[in-house]
Amino acid sequence: MRYAILMGLLSLFSLQVNADTRDDHERAREARLRGEIRPIAEILHHIGEQVPGEVIGIELERETRAGRPVWIYEIKILTPDGRRLEVEVDARNGRIQELEDDD
After folding, report:
1. Cα separation of 33 and 99, whole Å?
2. Number of folded domains in the chain?
3. How many C-beta atoms surround the C-beta of residue 53 within 10 A?
4. Whole-prediction pTM value?
5. Which keywords belong to this entry (predicted)?
6. Does pLDDT of 87 surpass 50?
7. Which of 11, 41, 59, 102 makes an SS bond possible with 86, Cβ 3.0 to 4.6 Å?
8. DSSP per-residue letters across the chain
9. What contacts 62, CB < 8 A, 6 or more positions away?
10. Which one, of 66, 63, 68, 45, lies nearest residue 55 by Cα?
């Protein structure tokens, strides 16, 4: 299962950060260096233990929740029974914020 997650990550990792004038990857790297987000490999390991399946997409977005800005990983997972799930994860602490069918 970990192998499937890592292969999914390597084969189609598409880190996206909401647009501003700087490059997306640079904003994500800076957020990681500041400790605002956890490494995606760590997040995937943690999520893989809770939500089995193959990772088919990843996005990193900056959102406002409860009046404060937060980084959210949106991870799309194809479950063993063929369902597509979207898992929203707090990028700072790795906690699942929302889990829903992605139909």
Report:
1. 28
2. 1
3. 23
4. 0.75
5. Signal
6. yes
7. 102
8. -HHHHHHHHHHH--------SS-HHHHHHHHHHTTSS--HHHHHHHHHHHS-SEEEEEEEEEEEETTEEEEEEEEEEE-TTS-EEEEEEETTT--EEEEEE--
9. 17, 18, 69, 70, 71, 72
10. 45
What does residue 20 show for φ and ψ, rounded to 5 degrees? -150, -165
For the beta carbon of residue 58, count every other beta carbon within 10 angstroms. 22
Residue keyed to tokens 């800005």: 69
d(CA 29, CA 34): 9
Distances (CA, A) of 61 to 4, 20, 37, 55: 24, 12, 11, 17
Structural domain boundaries, residue 94: 2-101
CATH number at residue 43: 3.10.450.40
